[in-house]
Each structure stands twice: as C-alpha cells, then as structure tokens.
C-alpha cells in the first residue's frame, strides 16, 4: 500500500494551472490525493484577475492568492517557517519553466515541474546545476513512471528476470490534431504548437519525450546515438506531429514512435521490451496489466494481484481489480518527492538529470531529422 | 467535466473506517477528491483508543476525534451551524448500519451509508421512512453506478437506443475466498462471513447485491420474482460463496451470478444487456469502455472519447485515454449527493429506496434457494 | 501434430448438405482436410434433380450421385468392399436423423451425424442401442470439442490441475434471429424454427445443447437435475430463442445460457470452469487461447505454443500464432472417428451416448421451463 | 462466399515440401481446400528416396512421384493435355526458386512460388520477364494478403474511406530464435539462417518482407527510399534477427519492424495505417477482426459479420464467429490464381512484380543498414 502519512501535511504553492487548465487540476488532485499535502497558495495565471478568481473558486485564503508569481515567491519566503509553502508546482507553458523553476529554487522552495524541464539545452543544464547546489528536491512530472506496473517492469528488468535487454519499442500515439479545425485556436494547450513557446518540437517534445523517458526508466539503458525522421502532416503545421526515432547504445536498439495524427488514439503509450530471457509489454490505457512472455511458458498477465506484483505494492492504493488510473500514478510521483522533501527514503522519481536528458533528446531528434536521419550523439 | 466547486466545502464526519479499513480510506479519498468536502470529524473504531489514534494519524483536530459514535453525533449537533459536520459517512459492518444511519439522521445530518442498507427488511423499510420524513440526503454507496460508461449505458437505454430490454446477464466474480487459509481469521472484512454480522447472505449480500443493483440501475427494469440456487463451497462456510439467481418481470429475464470462489478473478463485475435493437457489454475491470452491438453494424467501443460518450461527460475528470478508476467513480456518487445536499440539481444516485430493494433482494434470494429455487416475489 | 495418413483414404458418402447448405460444405471440407478421406458418393437433397446437380458441381462420378438416400444405401452396399463407401455423413434436418442414421447403420456403414442425434428421447435410445449392436463407429458432430485448447482444458481438469470442479458457466450467444425480417423465410436453416422439424426446442436445441456438451466434455461432470427458464422473444416465435438452465449433481453447479437474440454476437460460445485449485476460461471466437487462473499467480494464457499446450498437440496442424479455426476443429473429430474406423486407437469423440444425453437434456430443459423451472432429473 | 467450382479440378505438381516440411503440407491443404485442385504429381525432396516415400505416403499414383524435379517437368510436359499438371508449386529453399520456377515456366506450367521470389535482384528481374513472356500465371505466396479483413482494409483505403494515407506501422515479431540451442541444428527451416541459402538477410528476408508486402498491398503506397538498422543478436548469428526500416515516398512514412528474438511472440504480424480521415489496425493472430478508428466516433470492430465487411465476402467460407485461419487465407490466394489459370476474372494476388519489389526491398534494407542507415532508393 501507498506511503503513509508524513508528520504534517506539506504546503503547496502553484504557479499556473488556472481555470481552464487540465494539468493544474491534475496537480492539485494528485498532490492532495493521499492527504499528505495541502494547496495553500497560488499564482494561477499571468492575468492577475484570473489568478484571483481561480484562487477564490478553490476557496484558498485570499491573502495567499497572488496576482503574480513574483509576488507569491516574495511573500511566501517571508512567512514563518511553519506557515510558508514547502514546494512550488510549476504548471505553465514550456518556455517559462526555466525562469519559474529557477526562481522558486532561489527562493528556497522544492520544485515540482512539468516536462520538458526547459526549452533549451543550456538552460536545462544550468537549472540542473542550480538544483544540485540548492539541496532542494526537484520532481519532473514524467508521470507515466508512477504506474505500479511500470515500477514492476523496472524491477523485473533490474532483477535480471529478462536477461540483457536488447530491443525496445515504445510509442505514444494520439489523434487529436486530426480534429483541430484548420486555422482555429485550440481551447487550451494551443501554445503547444507555437514554435516559440513549445520549443523546437511539437509532438516529439510533447509525447515523444514521455515515451523516451518511459523506456529509459524501465530499462535503465542509456542510448548514445539517435537517428530520427519527423513529419508535419497537419496543414500549416510548423512543428512535427509524427515521427520515428531509432536510438542505440553499444548493444541495444530502441525505437520511439510518436504521433498526434492517428485517428482514434487517445493516449496510447505502449512499451515493449525484449530481453535475452523474456519480453514484456505494458500499455498506459490498460495500466493495471503487465504482460510477461517467455518462450515455452504461458503468456503471463501480471495484475496488481500477487503473481509477481509485490514489487508494485508501494505504488497501489486499492485491492486488485479495482482500477487505479492516471491520477493515482501522478500522485505516486508526488508521494515519492514528498518522502524526500520530508527527509526520508524515497522511491526513484524523475528529476533534474532526467530533465537534461529529455531536453537533449528532443533537440537531437529534431536535429537528426533535419539532417536526413544522420546519427547524432545523445 | 465533473461538477464544479460548491459555495463552500461540505464538512464530513465518519463512523468506522479506521486504520486497517480499506473502505474507510476509499470514503475519505473519494469524498475529498474534488475538493468539495473536507473530513473534519470521526469516530473511527468501536475501540476508543483506536479511534483516537486514527484521527491523529489523519491530522484531524483532536477535539473532533471522538471515542464513540454517540459522542460524535452529540457533540457535532451542538456545534454552531458553520462548524458542525454536514454529513455522516457510515463505514461499519452491516449489522450496525440501521442504528448508525438512523441516529445520524435523527441528529439532523445527511447520511452516506455502505450497502446493504441494513440486515433486515423491516429495518430497511423503517430507515427509508425515516429518511423520507427527515428531508435529509441519503446516499447508499452502490459505487459501481458512478462509472461514466455505466451512466452512458443507462442513458442509451433510457433514450431507446437499444429498444425494449429483454434479457440481462450480470455477474460479480471474485476469487479471494479460495485463498483464505481454513480456520484462519482474515485480516479485515472477516465479519463479512459471520452470519450474525453480515446478514443472511455471504457472497450474494456482498457482491451479488452490487451486481443486481447495477442491472437495475442501467436498465431500470424492476423484476418481480426471483428463483435462486446458492452454494457454500468453502470448507466450513456458513454462508453462500457462490450462486445464481434468475429474475423476471412480465417480459424480461435477468440472470445474476455471484462468486467469491473463482480463482484469479478480482472484481469481475460484468453487465450484458440485450434489447430488441441492440445489446451492450460493460466490465468494471476495464471501466472506460462500453461495447455497443447492433446486427449488421460494426461492434462499437464507446470510450470516454466522444462517439456517444457525451452522456458520461459530467462523470469524468480527464481527457479520454487517461484512465479513471474506482476512486473517481466512487467520488462521482459523493458529488451527486453533495449537489443535492447543497440544494441544487443532482444526478441520480442510489438512495434509501434502492436500499430497501437491495435488502429484499438478498433475503428473497436466500429464501428461494432454501426452497429449492421456488419463485418468490421481490 | 495431427494424425498421419491411414493405409488408404476412407470413402465418404453424404446424405443432405447440398448446394445452399453451409454444414454440407463444412462436412466435405473437414472430412477431406487431411487427405485421409474422399467424398465419393452423395444423395444431396430430398429433391432428386437438386441432388444430381450438386453431385455434378462437386465433380463426383455421376454413377454415385444418387437421387435419393435409399438408392444410395442400396447401391453402395452392393459395391465391392474396395469400392463402396466406408461411412455415411448425415447432414439433414433434425427430424430425419433417426431414420437416416439407423438406415445407414443397418446397411453396414459407419455414421457421422449432426446433432441432435434425434428429436425424441426414445428414438435416441433406440438408435444408441443399434449402434452398440452394430459395431459401427458413430460420430456425433459436437464439433466444438475438436478445438485443441478444449482438449487441453479437459486434460488439465482430468489431471487434477484445477482440483475438484465446483462451478461451471457456459453460454452460447448468437444474435441472428434479431435480423430475421418478421414473417420472412430465412434462406437456409429455416426448419430450425419449425417445431415439427427442429424438435421441441429452438435455441436450446440448436446451440444450448452444444454449450451443455462442451461443459460435459471438458469437466466430465454428469449433472443429475436441471431447472430451466426459457423465453421466445421473437415476434411469432413458437420455440425458445433465449434461456438459462441451472444444472447440478451432488456438488457442482452448472449454468447454461443460450441466446439467438443477442445483437452483435455471432458464435459466442464461452466456457468458464471453477475448481478448488484453479479456474479456466475458453472462448470459441478466439479458440487458440485458454486462460488459466490460480490465485496468487499471474493469469496464464495457454496458446498452442508450449507452456502446457502439449496436450493439444495431436489436434493441431500449424505452428502457434498461425490461426486454426472451425474447419480444423471439425476435422479433428473426423480424424478421431477415422482412427477408430480404421481399427486403431482414437482420441475421445462425441458418440451415441452423448447423443442420448443431449436429447434428454433438451427435453428436460423444455419440460422444466414449462413447469416454472421445477427441478427435473436429467 | 468463396469462389465456386471451376469446370474441372486443376492438377497440381509440387517440388519440395516433403515429409518434415511445414510449408509443403500447407500448400497441399490450401490448394485442395475448396476442391478446385488436386495434387497429382510431386518431386518432394532433393533425395530421390525421400521423394518416393513422401509420394507413397500421400497415396499419389507412383508413376507420378518423381525422383527429381527435372524428371517431373520432363515427364509431365509429355503427358496429354488432359492428364498433365496445370501448375507447379515451388516449396523449396530460397536459393533454388529462380531455377525451379524458371524451369517450370519454360516447361509451360503455371507457377506458385514461395517468397522471396529469388535471392538476387537480377535473378528476380529476369524471372519476372520470363513470366511476362510466358503468359503463364505466377503466384507468389505472400499469404497474409489472403485474409478477408486484409482485403477489406485494402478496399476501405482504395475507396478513400481513410483519406490520404500518411503513416504506416507494420511489424512481424517472432521469438523462436531465442529457443534455438546454441550450435544446434534446427529440425527444419535451418537453411533459413545460412547466408548462402537464405539470401542476404535472415529475419528481414523471412518475415520482414511479409510485413513490407502487407503494407504495400493494403495501402498501395510505393515507397521510394529506405533507411534501415539491423542487428544480429543471436550468438553466432551471421544474418540479421532484428531490425527496423523506415521507408518513405514524397509524403508518407512507413515503419517496418521485424524480429525473431522477441520472447513469446509467435506470428505477431500487425499493421497500423493512419489516414487523414481515419486509421485502422489489423493483427494476424486475430485475423477476423479489423479495427477502424475515426476521431469523434466509436472505435469500430469490423468482423466478418456485415458492418462493412462485404468487401471481404469473396474471401470467406463460414458464417462470422466461426473462426477462419491461416489455411483459409492461404487457400484464398490459390483460388485467385486458379481463377486466372482458368482464364476468368480473378481477385488481385501477389505476382512476379511483387516478387521483384520484395527482393529489392530485402537487398536495400541490408545495404542501408551496412551503411549506417543511409537512405537508399527502393
């Protein structure tokens, strides 16, 4: 069962994640799911009026609903230690992560930050160094690593159950861009496809980097080179909306496919791993199931019910067969970070080093594609 | 998207649901999931020391952690209106529901109560009358009706999409009783198999009644007669652990199968409905999918993504493909009850009338089985 | 791999199964699939002209295409032993099976007969006695027992892998009757719903009896009593098109559900078996997979690829992953009967004793339903 | 329903496909499945004694069981037109296809040939020219295009239902090489991994070329360039056993992944197609199902039962829900070729032009991989 209570609830402040934001609600719900933290402060929007309105709607103490993020950091750092926030969640467009996360760290707070960590590689490296110097906790919400069966997959591989890992196939397929009326502004997340704000990549930066991180996390393979082929199929698309990247180290080969133009797919994040002794498959849309295959033996479905699933137990709240989902997985990462913030032992979670890797991945994928798939270092 | 904020957070008190309780945690998490309610008081155990310990662990105000449920009701009713709890959640063994729910109503509180509503039929009827007189809200947590695709199924049928419903098959299969070491006390929920506490039935009362209610809720058919065949396969089992009930009204026939002795099943609650114009299938363990079938047309998977799923939208929090699960469905019932508590329009939720029906169902199933499957009125 | 060649190809004569017949083509293809038999004679229709036409279309020797079945039996028995047919396949409406199979036996031929063996119980018993006296082979084409994974299921149970079997659920659901325009004659198989020709039951006689036999075959449980509830939902339907039967012996309980009014189901024959040590599930529409479940162990998918599937090997022709289907399963029964016809050891196949049981099952289901589900002996 | 009888059964001669051969039995069974052809002659092995033994076992006329293939072609061409074989099936190792198919054509026979058509590109082109000059029918058994739902997929795309096709993902994953004991000779098919006999590629030549052809056949896209990355993971493996190829034309991008080292996969051939208006998925191991997805509409499962499946009707023998498999699909290609041999209209089938394309594909994949994934023309 999932981590028990801390000595006290940690105090959360959030930047961004206002009224229309899907991810803001996810952060609030996940952080508070297990009653180990409480949202007490926020600067919800770059528009002060919107920020105040959002804070009121969430019934926050008006004194701690701030018009701007600078106000929030300033005011909170001056509060007494037993009042001020413990951590800041950064739930804003990509191009602001560097400044916001850096400022929150500088103000002495732990940081929870949406991926990608930054838009530029140099920024990512600089931020990672700042984290290291600060002694603060930095959680990058590659949230799919919070699923119990993903943890189980990692443990099976770490324990050698699958032997040496030689081939990995991972994809993240969505279809929603096919439904975007041409020329029309998308109600939220529209910035994701503005080159300036999203960064150098569209779909690969958005979901491809999740897929890559998942493969990295589960197999712990560190690829050294990448060759990629991207496409922008959508009419007027400035950034990629489809692509495939082939990665390799000395031995293994990893294929990452990402799409936001595949009709009918919602969040089809699928991981397949081939080892010398066995292979496995996991799909995000059916997260409670991990398939383990070994020649000459029956195909095994590892659910949260025993049968090898003990490894995942720390990451689960309910008896097997009662479905857990996205929020729970997201909350599992928060919990791991909370354990570390509270000074205790914590499960592994994605941090600033993963952030640097992720930003580099996105950049080299784009660069390789621009050079006709030339192999580039990672 | 799920219901927005109320004017203020509703205040929750809980009876039962202490340290080891699975369902207590579910109630706490579900009720607070959307930040529309807050747990402020509790009498967590029939053992005062345990109650105090549980309240401390949950960081409640010690003044509102009570040694007994009578204390809680007494003290809370005397608090000023803007402090005292709004509703009481009853999360205790079956044999206490009647007294606790009745007392909470008498103290002026809304009630959220685990099913079955009571152990006896007369008690259920008496409690239902009390609810009616009280003007209070009564939510019976037949939680499976909180899933979005269950709501969609109900709406499809209500709208006539499937034509007249003629046949229904529903089952709830579990396997955990096969793992109970003979003679050994089960860590929690053990009372479920003590005839005195659980009521007249084991498995049919526990999960069979959920299955029955699901069929009732989705089809709105009210069967008038039942014929049942129960078994107690477990060594030393006093109560049924397997059985099948056939129900009918003038036209339709409904089959309810319940098991807790089917190896490898965790919470396999499956509903199949046959109408003159179409049929559908829903499975709790894959709750985001509803299958709709019409001869001569492709089999359709209705996910939370469009394609007919609009009906379910009020009951969902996340974009399609990001799995929602048990907690979310449970929270959907709380939200519906909250809307009604707040005096607004609410979605349908299981209430005291369903409670009476459910208790009668359990009793008549057991009685019919005792009489070799004789048809009895429902 | 499937049985090897016999010393010579067995010679097949067929009664019925003409031009429009689906099952006639299945018999011809299955019997000849492994090149162990050859169709050499036929009386394909009760209409002599149609019989002749069918024989010509099949390029049979015109001398052995007969205008009537009596001609065929007469002429073939007089041919020299190395020319005449070895066996007669009876692929005609139910009401003719008794006379045709009996006559073929009397003429000295082995018989392959569609189910049900006869329409009446007394006829079935009389025919079974005739088979016993004749020393001829009698294959009743309960063809679903020919699937490799069905054989594997039987072997797992026989070997005690699942422990004592206590509960079985089997259903055969179809939907095609929902598509029959009212009052319109169905192109083929229309006799199936004429009380005179089909026998006393519609759907239960047609597909329910397959489901029952499958449960019998796999578990080897012999139920002693039945309680049934049938319905005729189709407008103007004289015979049942939906129903559920509960069966029991001293210990076990078996539920058989049959439908031909479930939209979107084609041939959904599904078997679920619960034993003290494990449970299993098999579905005809995905025949190459058998699911084995044991608490505390992963759910296992037994395909034709190793992993326990060795038992099924005699019943398979292809490497795993290359799908085998209905024809192959049908051919497996023919092969078993061929082995016995050739005087060798044969795998188990449904025979005249199963035929008697099946006819009794159908009659007692109908009788029980007529008496409000009263328990009747089987 | 599948093609009806021809005026007479076509006469089949086979080269190769002897006792231990899996594919020989498939050819015999598939060609004769619908009683439109008959095996009458064979040269089953390069070892004359084995050939004679195989022919005897198949009960062929001993006069037409030949010690060598040259004998067979010589003798058969001299038989009268109403006796001699109509076509020759070449079921031998890859390196012999060129000579055998060419000789059979030269002798005036139609040819059915296993893929790849030849080992070398020049040979393939020469053979294709010979076919063109000969006026004979040439069927290359890319058998997976024989499945009804593959035909339906092609028709849906051809009719514009999916709009312009922009992305395709296809893979063929097997695992059996992981079970090959090091240094041990594999009982059959061992030549597949001898560079001399198999050609320049192992897994890509064997199953990757099937995957490529499937994508080609269904989408009718003709890629112009390929970039590939192959691996030989098996200890001592001279040829590739894993790899990924990216293909493109002016617009579309196709990914082909092939493996024979993925534990637990048997014949996982899966095709995914993304069009502007819709996407589809088909899996060989569940061949009766085609999934069609369009944003905003339910996911549709197209089975052989209506609902858009009419296109596939010519390629099916059984009512929906009665599984058809590999043999039936294989037989569908034979039937198409038979129709053309008989001078009639035929459905599309893979022929000598596909053969040339396939050989070029294999060579360029290997060449690109050798040059670090450089884009090469196809």
Q: Give the helix proportion of chain A (percent range).
A: 25-40%
CATH class of the largest domain in chain A: Alpha Beta
CATH topology-level name of the largest domain in chain A: Dihydrodipicolinate Reductase, domain 2
The CATH H-level homologous superfamily of the largest domain in chain A = Dihydrodipicolinate Reductase, domain 2
Distance separating the two termini of chain A: 37 Å
Strand tally of chain A is: 14
Order of helices and strands of chain A: EHEHHEHEHEHEHHEEEEEEEHHE
Largest interface: A-D, 41 and 41 residues
Features:
homotetramer, 378 residues, alpha/beta, Rossmann fold, Dihydrodipicolinate Reductase, domain 2, 10 helices, 14 strands, 32% helix
Explain this structure:
Four copies of one chain form a homotetramer. In chain A, strands 13-12-11-10-6-9-8-7-14 form a nine-stranded mixed sheet. The first copy, chain A, has a five-stranded parallel sheet with strand order 2-1-3-4-5, sandwiched between helices. Chain A is globular. In chain A, helix 1 links the parallel strand 1 (10-16) and strand 2. Helices cover 32% and strands 21% of the residues of chain A. In chain A, helix 1 (22-32) packs across helix 9 and helix 5 (121-134) runs antiparallel to helix 10 (352-370). Chain A is an alpha/beta fold. Strand 13 (299-302) of chain B pairs antiparallel with strand 13 (299-302) of chain D, so a sheet runs across the interface.
């Amino acid at each position: 069962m999932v981590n028990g209570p801390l000595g006290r609830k940690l105090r959360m402040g959030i930047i961004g994640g206002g009224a229309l934001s899907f991810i803001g609600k996810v952060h609030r719900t996940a952080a508070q799911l297990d009653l180990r933290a409480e949202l007490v402060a926020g600067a919800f929007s770059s528009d002060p009026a919107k920020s105040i309105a959002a804070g009121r709607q969430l019934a926050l103490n008006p004194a701690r609903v701030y018009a701007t993020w600078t106000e929030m950091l300033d005011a909170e750092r001056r509060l007494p230690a037993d009042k001020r926030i413990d951590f800041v969640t950064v739930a804003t467009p990509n191009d602001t992560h560097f400044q916001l996360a850096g400022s929150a760290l500088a103000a002495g707070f732990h940081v929870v930050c949406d991926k990608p960590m930054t838009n530029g590689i140099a920024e990512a490296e600089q931020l990672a160094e700042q984290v290291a110097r600060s002694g603060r906790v930095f959680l990058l919400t590659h949230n799919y690593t919070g699923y119990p069966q993903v943890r189980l997959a990692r443990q099976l591989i770490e324990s050698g159950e699958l032997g040496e890992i030689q081939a990995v196939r991972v994809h993240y397929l969505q279809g929603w861009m096919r439904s975007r009326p041409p020329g029309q502004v998308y109600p939220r997340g529209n910035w994701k496809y503005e080159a300036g704000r999203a960064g150098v990549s569209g779909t690969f930066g958005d979901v491809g980097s999740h897929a890559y991180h998942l493969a990295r996390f589960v197999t712990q393979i560190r690829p050294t080179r990448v060759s990629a082929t991207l496409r922008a199929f959508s009419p007027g698309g400035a950034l990629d909306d489809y692509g495939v990247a082939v990665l390799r180290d000395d031995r293994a080969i990893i294929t990452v496919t990402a799409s936001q133009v595949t009709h009918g797919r919602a969040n089809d994040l699928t991981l397949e791993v081939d080892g010398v002794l066995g292979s496995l498959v996991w799909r995000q849309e059916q997260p409670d199931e991990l398939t383990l295959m070994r020649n000459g033996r029956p195909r095994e479905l590892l659910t949260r019910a025993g049968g090898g699933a003990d490894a995942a137990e720390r990451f689960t709240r309910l008896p097997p067969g009662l479905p857990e989902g996205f929020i729970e997985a997201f909350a599992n990462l928060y919990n791991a970070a909370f354990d570390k913030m509270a000074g205790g032992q914590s499960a592994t979670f994605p941090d600033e080093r993963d952030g640097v890797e992720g930003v580099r991945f996105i950049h080299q994928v784009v660069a390789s594609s621009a050079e006709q798939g030339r192999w580039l270092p990672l």
